[in-house]
Amino acid sequence: MKQEYTISIYSENHIGLLSQVSTVFTRRNVNIESITSSESAIPGIHKITIVVITDKEQIEKVRNQLDKRIDVVKSFIFTSEDIIHQEIALYKVPTKEILDSDEVERLIRKHNARILEISHEYTVIEKTGHKSETQKLFVELSKFGVTQFTRSGRVAVTKLKKELLSNYLDKLENEKNIQD
């Protein structure tokens, strides 16, 4: 059964790694719904967060392929219940529309959004939340002539006390100490 999965890939930050990662998904015929990359809490390690819709067997195969990459330290699979996640969206609306109606202000308050910039020509609105929440605000603002819209990829942290990669690295260190 297909469902949404978030896969966190921890790696060194090397040129071409993102291309290698996306190739693994392409070869397995798994479409990437969302992707973000940033530094992690561990010095020298970057985190790539990818959202896909697939089945358990397919995502396990993808993870196994990713873990074989030299630059990948480790990857982990999560369902939405395992993580806390958000996205950010920006909406550009003509300022005239905002001045002509107080409905836009009500929408901003209703959706807990905020205004980032106002100029004579446009106003930029920011909303953080789940994809469905940012999409709902987009639909509601559309009647006011949204001229630009963009949404980031998912950012996520686990609900666990400690980062899984830290646990994995601790385990490797303990195994190394036992061998020495």
Structure description:
The protein has helices spanning 17-27, 56-67, 95-100, 103-110, 131-141, 164-179, and strands at residues 3-11, 32-39, 46-54, 72-78, 83-94, 114-118, 122-129, 148-151, 155-158. The chain folds into 2 domains: 3-78, ACT domain (Alpha-Beta Plaits); 84-155, Alpha-Beta Plaits (2-Layer Sandwich). The mean pLDDT is 91. It is α+β, with helices and mostly antiparallel strands and 180 residues long. Helices cover 36% and strands 37% of the residues. A hairpin with a 3-residue loop joins β6 (114-118) and β7. Strands 5, 6, 7, 8 and 9 form a 5-stranded antiparallel sheet that branches. A 4-stranded antiparallel sheet has the order 2-3-1-4.
What's the short story on this structure?
The protein has 180 residues and is an alpha+beta fold. The chain has helices at 17-27, 56-67, 95-100, 103-110, 131-141, 164-179; strands spanning 3-11, 32-39, 46-54, 72-78, 83-94, 114-118, 122-129, 148-151, 155-158.
Instruction: Name the helix and strand elements from N-terminus to C-terminus, one letter apiece.
Output: EHEEHEEHHEEHEEH
At the first level of CATH, what is the class of the largest domain? Answer: Alpha Beta
CATH arch. level architecture of the largest domain: 2-Layer Sandwich
- CATH homologous superfamily identity of the largest domain: ACT domain
Helical residue percent?
A: 25-40%
Number of helices: 6
Give the low-pLDDT segments.
none
State mean pLDDT (0 to 100 scale): 91
Count of domains: 2
Strand content: 35-45%
